[in-house]
Amino acid sequence: MAQTLFTATRVGAIDVASRLVMAPLTRNRAPAGVPNALMAQYYAQRADPFTGAGLIVSEGTAISPQGQGYADVPGLYGSEQIDGWKPVTRAVHAVGGRIVCQLWHVGRVSHHVLQPGHGDPVAPSALRANAKTYVFDAQGHGHFAPTSMPRALHRHELPGIVHDYAAAARHAVQSAGFDGVEIHGANGYLLDQFLKSGANHRTDDYGGRIAHRARLMLEVARAVCDAVGADRVGIRLSPVTPANDIVDADPQPLFAHLMRQLAPLGLAYIHVIEGATGGPREVEGRPFDYAAMKAAYRAAGGRGAWMVNNGYDPRTAEAALASGHADLVSFGKAFVSMPDLAERIRRGGPYQGLDRASLYGGGAQGYVDYPALAD
Question: Is the N-terminal amide bond of 350 cis, ω within 30° of 0?
């Protein structure tokens, strides 16, 4: 039987009722990095596997204080934060849902007011990203501000970052109740910065040639798999997105190498952003063959589910599944305004729009008050 959006499947160790995935969505509603009751309500609204998502990927969650790049995003490194996540995962599971935690270190995409001791953000090289991050002013009003100048990480600091990823994974699965984790290796954040030549000008064995630039991401992937089991680990990648001022001179061989190295780990899934994150699926001047990337993964023995993202609608999602291009399709902003997205797709609509003014920060408005379909 051909797979469709509403065909059940198994993603590593996780049984899911559909192939419709809620993509990670930063909403800046966790003061002091601590998840709260409003967040539990938000995720539970979208977790029913028949009206909402078969699998939820949480918003990006900082693995350490250094890894934070935006105000009021949740963390997973202190006991208060871990305890804050427990009601969220319980609420998701109570309606039959499944949720994995996206593990996040932003690297240079941060501001000194968000860093421990107001220090400089860290990066593979001391190159500032031409990007913005979300901070609060003296009156407590959220706004976007240019990122701060980073400092280059010393080589001796890198094992500590790998350790932080593994520790956060253990906290997520063994303490906070998540079904698994997703390593955020996309969108110009730390692991993507090491991977891509535009942000990584190092001359040690974490920079230069492809194998060296991929080293940190692969060390993190292996450590996280060791911590919680590879069948509960996914990874998100974005080969050509320009998000957060990231670029690579030759991404096709870079991602072919990465696929060959990730394949033996036995990951639950690979999550690929096709094109520019939240933008066009074809990035001018940055051609990329996603089928070849997937073929490299399969040829090297990779059996994890292949999840695609960016610009999909119900028709193109079904086509991607029917053709074998994808095993799972993730939707982002559609799940913000339509917590019952699956039910709307089944009925052929109606679809409701998004209040962009309430995306980042705030309270219930534009977060948990979007109406569901009437019975």
Answer: yes
Q: Which residue has the tokens 């060296």?
A: 212
pLDDT(1) > 80? no
Which among 1, 173, 207 has a CA at the least distance from the CA of 99?
173
Distance from C-alpha of 261 to C-alpha of 283, rounded to nearest angstrom: 26
Q: How many residues does the chain have?
A: 375
Average pLDDT over residues 237-249: 98
Hey, where are the domains in the chain? 9-332
Residue 198 has pLDDT above 50, yes or no: yes
Active site residue 189: yes
The residue annotated as part of the active site, out of 42, 165, 189, 269, is 189
9-332: CATH topology is: TIM Barrel (3.20.20)
Q: How confident is the model at residue 88 (pLDDT cuts 50, 70, 90)?
A: very high
Residues whose CB falls within 8 Å of the CB of residue 138, separated by 6 or more in sequence, listed in order: none
Segment 275-292 mean pLDDT: 94
Backbone angles phi, psi at 276, to 5 degrees: -90, 125
pLDDT at 296 over 80: yes
